[in-house]
Amino acid sequence: MATRVPGPLTRPAAAATGPVATADGLTRRFGERTVLDRLDLEIGRGEFIALLGRSGSGKSTLLRALAGLDSEAEGGLSVTGSVAVAFQEPRLVPWKRVHANITLGLAVPDPKEKADAALAEVGLTERAGAWPLTLSGGEAQRASLARALVREPDLLLLDEPFSALDALTRITIHQLVLQLWSVHRPAVLLVTHDVDEALLLADRVLVLDRGRIAHESDVPAPRPRHRDHPDLTSLRTTLLAALGVSPEGTT
Ligand SMILES: Nc1ncnc2c1ncn2[C@@H]1O[C@H](COP(=O)(O)OP(=O)(O)OP(=O)(O)O)[C@@H](O)[C@H]1O
Predict the structure, then answer these.
(1) Secretion signal: which residues (predicted)?
(2) What is the maximum span of the chain, computed from C-alpha positions, in angstroms?
(3) What residue segments make up the domains of the chain, in order of their start?
(4) d(CA 107, ligand 1 centre) in Å
(5) How do 83-86 and 74-79 pair as beta strands?
(6) Residue having the nearest C-alpha atom to atom 5 of ligand 1
(7) What is the distance in A from the centroid of ligand 1 to the CA of 55?
């Protein structure tokens, strides 16, 4: 059986060294289908990882297991510290204003002040009293990030949070995520379909295939990165090949 530590809402006095999460032979079956197949993974503190994989390769399944949202995964899984998740759709509660969404279920001293600070960090102070349905897509994702941030996670799981955003908003949110990461330094696991997004943001890029981490690359280029950085060009080709895609885009 998997062992996991559910994410408490405040940063615990847990060991500040060692990996924040370790999967050791993690397996998840849905009926006859084995989606995660004895998968091994270690996530170091403060590291920014992007997880690529073809549609249906099990990225969200892995993320759900790491988030403690899947009680049926088998094998070893240990998560040390608190976890927060931001999903593709921001999942704000529509009948609560933005500010109340941030503090929902938050069991820390001074939740209001903490929510104010988180909203300020994501540039959403002006929209604190707004109803979620009146937010733009980018604002809703900012609110989702603030809700994750206010929990001071040791591990921040991002499940394609940028994929529904327009290109310009996406660039702004990329910068925001990097800024939040550099200030708070959670470990980040970003699930994405976008090789360039992975190369722009992450220190390490993983490719999930047939239930395992089939490929792993460190990203050598310093930040801020530009997609035409020479170090990224060959890495892009390598990652596309690991995904079974030729650079020209034909599979
Ligand atoms: N609750 C479930 N019951 C049955 N099958 C499931 C369940 N959740 C996921 N699966 C299956 O597991 C496989 C992996 O799904 P998952 O959502 O993890 O893939 P993914 O890599 O995140 O895909 P995408 O990139 O398209 O979002 C899929 O074939 C999916 O149908």
Answers:
(1) none
(2) 54
(3) 40-198, 214-246
(4) 32
(5) unpaired
(6) 30
(7) 8
Q: What is the C-alpha to C-alpha distance for residues 242 and 198, in angstroms, rounded to an integer?
A: 14
pTM over 0.80: yes
- Predicted ipTM beyond 0.95: yes
Q: Which atom of ligand 1 is nearest to the CA of 62?
A: 18
Choice from 29, 61, 245 to test ligand 1 binding pocket (greatest atom count within 8 A of CB): 61
Which residue's CA is the closest to the ligand 1 atom numbered 18?
58
Phi, psi of 188 (to 5 degrees): -120, 135
Q: Of all atoms in ligand 1, which is nearest to the CA of residue 61?
A: 18
Rounded to the nearest whole angstrom, what is the distance from the C-alpha of residue 60 to the centroid of ligand 1? 7
At the top level of CATH, the class of 40-198 is alpha beta
**Cα dihedral value 149, 115, 12, 76, nearest 10:** -40
Peptide bond into 224 cis (omega under 30): yes
| For ligand 1, atom 3: residue with the closest CA | 30
CA 61 to ligand 1 center in whole angstroms: 6
**251 residues of the chain, pLDDT tens digit each:** 444 333 333 334 444 678 999 999 999 999 999 999 999 999 999 999 999 999 999 999 999 999 999 999 999 999 998 999 998 888 899 999 999 999 998 888 888 999 999 999 999 999 999 999 999 999 999 999 999 999 999 999 999 988 888 888 888 889 989 999 999 999 999 999 999 999 999 999 999 999 999 999 999 888 888 888 888 999 999 999 999 987 665 44
Find the residues whose C-beta lies inside 6 A of ligand 1. Answer: 30, 35, 53, 55-61
Q: What residues contact residue 216 under an 8 Å CB cut-off, 6+ apart?
A: 204, 205, 206, 207
Q: Are 47 and 187 in contact (CB under 8 A)?
A: yes
